[in-house]
Structure formats: structure tokens, C-alpha cells
Design brief:
167 residues, mainly alpha, 3 helices
């Protein structure tokens, strides 16, 4: 066998060095820096997406608090109107009292409908970001590529929501 023959050691070492030194230089100077830069860009993108998602979440919480305060104010105003109307309505007919109650109920229903619509819109607007961030986190953490439908089904099952679609 030529590998064990001492006469062949020097040529084998020569070809080993001639083959692996350029290969090592190529990998060390070209391939590894490119791969590192791609990983850094992906990491920056994921961090930026997470920052944007946190910002949107904070804005959504702020909007929800504002609308909750509006509902409470509308309820307080409605309650005050109803109480005052009841005090003044002792001499008035039952029809007047029913009319005021209808107005208060309509105001509350409108406010609650607005809140529900805004929550629905907020959830719809956040869904593509949730899907994208979840996909990237699964790919980053588990190293598994998943499609939008799979991520959407996971999000829906965790939230207990009806089936939604990414727009």
C-alpha cells in the first residue's frame, strides 16, 4: 500500500498541503465572513421586527385604555342622565323614562360596538406581524421552517379564536 510506504510520504504531504491550504484560505477568508454577515443581517431584522411589534402592542394597549375610559365616562354620563331623569320623571309618564333609557342604552351600545370594531381591527392588523414574528422565532429557535398557514393555526389555537387569515 502506497500510504504506508515511506517513499510516498513526502508527495502525499505535498499534495495534502497544496489541496487543503487553498481550501482553508477560501473558507476562512470568503465563506465564513459572508455567512457571518448574513446571520448578522437576519438577527438585526428579527430584532427590528420584535421592536416594532412591541411598539405596536404598546400603542394598542394605550388605545384600549383610552376606549375603556371613554366607555366608563359614557356609562357615568348615562347613569347621571338616567338618575336625574328618574328624579324629575316622578310626575312624568313612563314613556318619557323609557325614551331616556333607550338613549342611554344606544350610547352604550354604540360605544361598545366602536370598541369591539377597534379590537377586531387591531387584531386583524397585528395578525400578519404575529405570524411573521412567530415564523422567524420558530426558525431561529427550533431551526424549523414553517408556512404561514401552520403558524396561523398555532396562533388561532393558542388564542382560542375563530379561523383568521393573513391579509
Amino acid at each position: 500500500m502506497p500510504q504506508l510506504d515511506f517513499n510516498w510520504f513526502l508527495p502525499q504531504i505535498f499534495w495534502l498541503v497544496l489541496t487543503f491550504v487553498p481550501l482553508y484560505l477560501f473558507v476562512a477568508l470568503y465563506a465564513v465572513p459572508r455567512i457571518s454577515s448574513v446571520v448578522d443581517v437576519r438577527k438585526a431584522k428579527v430584532n427590528e421586527d420584535i421592536r416594532k411589534a412591541e411598539k405596536l402592542n404598546n400603542e394598542a394597549v394605550k388605545i384600549e385604555k383610552e376606549y375603556t375610559a371613554t366607555i366608563e365616562k359614557a356609562r357615568a354620563e348615562g347613569g347621571a342622565i338616567a338618575t336625574e331623569a328618574l328624579k324629575k320623571a316622578n310626575s312624568e309618564t313612563i314613556a318619557k323614562t323609557a325614551e331616556l333609557d333607550k338613549k342611554v342604552s344606544k350610547m352604550l351600545a354604540d360605544s361598545e360596538k366602536k370598541i369591539t370594531d377597534l379590537r377586531t381591527k387591531m387584531n386583524k392588523d397585528m395578525l400578519p406581524h404575529q405570524v411573521e414574528i412567530t415564523k422567524k422565532l420558530i426558525e431561529k429557535i427550533a431551526g424549523i421552517k414553517v408556512n404561514d398557514e401552520k403558524v396561523l393555526s398555532i396562533i388561532n389555537s393558542l388564542e382560542g379564536n375563530e379561523k383568521r387569515k393573513v391579509v
